[in-house]
Amino acid sequence: MKYNHPQTSNMNIITTSKAPILTAVLLFAFALTSCAQQSQKEKVPTTASITAATKKVIIPIDGMSCASCQGNVRKNLKGTNGVSAVVVSLEHRNATVTFDSMFVSTQQLVNKINGIGYTTGKPKESKQ
């Protein structure tokens, strides 16, 4: 329905039959925004979420010979649930992994590296 206002030409007015549709669209947009904001809040670590369960280990790795090997180890460890940081050194032939021991163990990290074809030495716990 069009309404000709004396000061505005051809101003569109939302009819009552379209109001429920507009309301539904606005509620849906609000719900999406709320969900996105909530998921962003959940991803941000807080001081309270950093617990004594956070560990850092250095795992010696044999068999890495190039940057591709280094990237392969990093990618596989980084994709593990509970792992928050991975630094793989080709020069030192090791991986330094920071992880939450509530989700993953040192042995699981070692098994992950062995599972992609590399040999690991005995892991050493590092200071945070």
Notes on the structure:
By secondary structure, the chain is of the alpha+beta class. The chain folds into 2 domains: 2-43, no CATH class; 50-125, Alpha-Beta Plaits (2-Layer Sandwich), CATH 3.30.70.100. It is 37% helix and 24% strand. It contains 3 helices and 7 strands, in the order ββαβαββαββ. The protein has helices at residues 19-43, 67-78, 106-115; strands at residues 2-3, 11-12, 54-62, 83-89, 94-100, 119-120, 124-125. Strands 3, 4, 5, 6 and 7 form a 5-stranded antiparallel sheet that branches. Strands 1-2 form a two-stranded antiparallel ribbon. The protein is elongated, with a radius of gyration of 27 Å.
CATH fold naming of the largest domain: Alpha-Beta Plaits
Q: How many distinct beta strands? A: 7
Mean pLDDT: 78
- Please state the second-level CATH architecture of the largest domain: 2-Layer Sandwich
Largest sheet: 5 strands, antiparallel
In which range does the helix fraction lie? 25-40%
Provide the gyration radius in Å. Answer: 27 Å
**What best-fitting shape do the alpha-carbon axes yield?**
elongated
How many domains make up the 3D coordinates?
2
Strand-pairing-aware structural class: alpha+beta
